[in-house]
Amino acid sequence: DSIQSSCASSIPNVVLAGSPVATGGSVVAIEEVEGDRVAECEVWCDRDDEVRCLVATAWVTLPDGDDVTPR
């Protein structure tokens, strides 16, 4: 099975080239879409000063048999 995904994002703060960032994310919902299980995920990047610099929602089609639970 292949994994398909899409993403919508906003960039509220600037990140300069070479600046360290930390990434994170969580599954917020799982739905059936046209026979596929699709996970809606919140994803983000934070600068090293803990300022959130990227916020996005991503949708990922899950392979059969994956046991994913929203948090």
Relevant terms:
71 residues, 4 strands, elongated, single chain, mainly beta
Describe the protein.
This protein is mainly beta. It has strands at residues 5-10, 21-33, 36-47, 52-61. It has a four-stranded antiparallel β-sheet, with no helix packed on it. It is elongated. It starts with a strand and ends in a 10-residue tail after the last strand. The mean pLDDT is 83.
Main sheet? 4 strands, antiparallel
Number of strands: 4
The computed structural class is mainly beta
List the strand order in the largest sheet: 1-4-3-2
Determine the N-to-C terminus distance: 25 Å
Helix content: under 10%
Stretches where pLDDT is under 50 for at least 5 consecutive residues are none
The percent range for strand residues is: over 45%
Mean pLDDT: 83
Q: List the secondary-structure elements in sequence, H or E.
A: EEEE
Instruction: Please give the count of helices.
Output: 0
Large-scale geometry = elongated
Gyration radius from CA atoms, angstroms = 14 Å
Strands, helices and their partners?
Layout: E1 5-10, E2 21-33, E3 36-47, E4 52-61
Antiparallel strand pairs: 1-4, 2-3, 3-4
